[in-house]
Amino acid sequence: MAIANESKRESREMHHEAHSGPAKYVIIWVVLMVLTVVTVLTGRMHLPNFGLALALLIATVKGTLVALYFMHLAEHQGANRLIIGVSVLFVVLLMTMALTDSATRFPLQNAQGSRLSDMPVTEDFLKAQFPEGNQQNEKAGSSTHPKEEQEPAQGH
Amino acid sequence: MQSSAPVVSVPEGTQAPKFAAHFATLDVQNHAARLGMWLFLSTEILLFAGLFVCYGFYRFNFPEAFAEGSRHLDLFLGTVNTIVLITSSFTAAMAVHYAKASKNKMVTLMIALTLLMALGFLVIKGFEYHHKFEQGTLPGKYYHFAGIQVPGITLYFTVYFLSTGLHAFHVIIGMGILAWVMSRSMKNHFNYANFTAVELGSMYWHLVDLVWIFLFPMLYLI
User: Fold this and answer.
1) Whole-angstrom Cα distance, residue B211 to residue B201?
2) Phi, psi for A26 (deg, rounded to 5)
3) What is the rounded CA–CA span in Å between residue A63 and residue A148?
4) Looking at this predicted complex, what is its ipTM?
5) Four-CA torsion B163, B167, B172, B176, nearest 10 degrees
6) pTM of the predicted model over 0.90
7) What is the mean pLDDT of each run of 10 residues along chain A (156 residues)?
8) Any alpha helices (H) in chain B, and if so which ranges?
9) Which residues, numbered 69 to 128 in chain A, qualify as contacts with chain B under a Cβ-Cβ cut-off of 8 Å?
10) Which residue of A126, B11, B21, B188 sits 20 to 30 Å from the alpha carbon of B59, by its own alpha carbon?
């Protein structure tokens, strides 16, 4: 039986690990600490174009280390790896589809009410945002008519 | 196929693993337990992925607001929390290691350390939340902070509170699970043949750590 053999192998590998000592976990912990310091330092530089990409790359390396060694994925067999692989694939699909949609829209195609300036906001916030009245609408990124700005609750 | 529990010799005073009759062997049962946990954790990953998509979507539309908002967070407290959570993940992994070696006292100690750091994480998070409640950097229409008035800033704090709030909720649940595992290790239950509860409990804790590893750069470091 394939499944029995697979679980037997997994079980053997899990137990074998018990005799190898805690050194592996200490090493992973130190690497995670170093990567945390690195990502804080690069984050404080406020790199213009690739700052977030670099931070997410470091986070991915850290996350992979946690999954492989702390969660023992490195010793696990087919089915466990398949589940986590498919899960990551679905996350990537979800993100790329949603963000591609967002990135390829014309600004005017945003539905009425989808902009911040269309949202119901408090009186104070509105005053603070538009101290000189309706002339500031361009700054607020609004494509709606100024009159609608004054009636934020409209249509809700 | 067996229908009765297999004879497993375990160290004295510890518990033999419970064995369900519908599994062929103990190995198959352990494999199934682990597989089930991975399935559950993958649904958790997708739950948080929804919030990550929200983040990406709004960040694309309001990049200046998100840069302003992230600079407004307390980077020092965020970094301390990251270090605390990664270290607690390390002690949770060590608990599994000692459970496999049938050292229940060390399992108890490691989980106690994990719980202590989890509590520390929540206390630090509480200070951060308190500061935001006082200032008025709240989600959606409750935002009333005069310091940052960039369009989209309310969306940044909505994403901030939703994602860190959901994460803190997971921290609390994880603490409950680990406390239950610790109560069993105090009763000297675990050994090389019976450590599934420690392993799966610590897997949940690693997921909490995993999510924070991504939340930290997204919210604090851009």
Assistant:
1) 16
2) -65, -45
3) 46
4) 0.90
5) 140
6) no
7) 60 64 90 95 83 90 93 84 92 91 70 57 62 49 43 42
8) 26-61, 63-72, 75-100, 104-135, 153-186, 196-220
9) 69-72, 76-77, 79-80, 83-84, 86-88, 90-91, 94-95, 98-99, 102-103, 116-117, 119-122, 124-125, 128
10) A126
